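[[Encoded backbone]]
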Amino acid sequence: MTFTRKTIATIARTFARDEDGATAIEYGLFAALIGAVIVGAVATLGTDTRTGFQTVSTAMTEAQTEADSE
């Protein structure tokens, strides 16, 4: 019975000192945060790019209409 208690105590101490699982979780959280930032940046840039192209398209259409009317 003493051997079993010592074995359990040793396993418990080893488990308590093992930080591999915590490190993996931290890396996973960092990866999720970086992914969220990338998605946000792409969404913002996509909207800004679309607005820019629409502005240029509108200006070109107006210029063509003015050129045709002259």
